[in-house]
Design brief:
2 domains, alpha/beta, 7-stranded mixed sheet, Aspartate Aminotransferase, domain 1, 14 helices, globular, Aspartate Aminotransferase, domain 2
Length: 379
């Protein structure tokens, strides 16, 4: 049976060009980048070239990119690194109720360490209120962390405005851009972003590698101790092949960005229109504009999305009822709860996230099987 993959928000397929660039670093250029002989220098050179490519994707300087193990590590490093380095200035951090668990659980950890966390509300489309943000700031505020785009409902927050508010108040601004990088035009310098998290496997690169952008001049505490890798900020022998893959994926994302965004918008809009035509009693969650181009989140009322996912899996379709990081959590989605959905709407919410390998024909197959599954489950 063929596989029809519509869960690109959870992970993406590694592109062949990315894999081809990685392979030599497993068996030919296998030197430890921290050593001094030529085999090691070749690996180090590859890492630095990858750093340049990642920097180019988000408009950063090469020396502002730190390689880490994943997006979650980047988020942990940003929050804990700033919290501990700025502790003498204050202990207050502002975030939102719809962040990724890597942010929310880091905040819960920091609360136990004596930090005060404010969790901003969002409206029914997932947007924060900028006036509420301004009112929440106090002299002890050291960090504002707001995700660039939500992983469940696709909402793209007003990042430039948030960054400006932070700058006006001499507060560091971090954004979890794991879902946004490669799907939205980002220039950290123009947007005044101080710190940004990204992950390789969301942009057709490998799992197990990510990056943290930190604006030049901002200091942060490391929380992995050991050697002096990554400018003494992230100890551990580098995942050379993974970093090379992330670099190539970033290079391809930069080259294809405008075409990719438009193609994803076209496919997403076609999917939503076809669902609206063919299936009754639905609710589209999140905004229609200011949304990730490949993201759709629709509640099919009167059914359980997990039952729907099983029906789709029987015909080779991969989809999601929310974030992959919370798929084993029986509690209702914190994102859908925060935007005010009732229990029936939350229970029936299906997330479809499109990617570069999806086609219009695949969407037709998806909608037809969705229609049949919904009809069956509503009997």
């Amino acid at each position: 049976m063929d596989t029809y993959y519509f869960d690109n928000g959870a992970t993406t397929k590694v592109k062949q060009e990315v894999l081809d660039e990685m392979i030599p670093y497993f068996s030919e250029e296998y030197g430890n980048p921290s050593s001094i002989y030529s085999l090691a220098r070749n690996a180090k050179k590859g890492i630095e070239e990858a750093r340049e490519k990642v920097a180019n994707l988000i408009g950063a300087k090469k020396n502002e990119i730190y390689f880490v193990g994943c997006g979650s590590e980047a988020d942990n490093t940003a929050l804990k690194g700033i919290a501990y380095s700025k502790r003498n200035k204050g202990n207050h951090i502002i975030t939102t109720k719809i962040e990724h668990p890597a942010i929310l659980n880091s905040c819960k950890f920091l609360e136990k360490q004596g930090f005060e966390i404010t969790y901003l509300n969002v409206d029914e489309k997932g947007f924060i209120n900028l006036d509420e943000l301004r009112k929440t700031i106090k002299k002890e505020t050291i960090l504002i962390s707001v995700m660039f785009a939500n992983n469940e409902i696709g909402t793209i927050e007003p990042i430039e405005e948030i960054a400006q508010i932070a700058k006006d108040n001499d507060i560091i601004f971090h954004t979890d851009a794991v879902q946004a990088v490669g799907n939205v035009k980002i220039n950290v310098q123009e947007m005044k972003i101080d710190m940004l998290s990204l992950s390789g496997h969301k942009i057709y690169g490998p799992k197990g590698v990510g990056a943290l952008y930190v604006r030049e001049g901002i200091d942060f505490e490391k929380f992995i101790n050991g050697g002096h890798q990554e400018k003494n900020k992230r100890a551990g022998t580098e995942n050379t092949a993974g970093i090379i893959g992330l670099g190539k994926a970033a290079e391809l994302a930069k080259t294809n960005l405008e075409t990719h965004i438009q193609n994803m918008k076209n496919l997403r809009d076609y999917y939503i229109e076809e669902v609206q035509k063919n299936i009754s009693n639905i609710k589209i969650n999140g905004p229609l504009n200011a949304r990730l181009p490949g993201n759709s989140n629709i509640s099919f009322l009167g059914i359980n999305a997990n039952d729907l996912l099983l029906e789709l899996d029987n015909v080779g379709i991969c989809a999601s009822s929310g974030s992959a990081c919370t798929s084993n959590d029986p509690t209702p989605s914190h994102v859908l709860t925060a935007i005010g959905l009732n229990s029936d709407e939350i229970k029936g919410a299906l997330r479809i996230t499109l990617g570069e390998f999806n086609t219009k024909e695949e969407i037709d197959y998806l909608v037809q099987n969705l229609k049949e599954a919904v009809q069956k489950l509503r009997l």
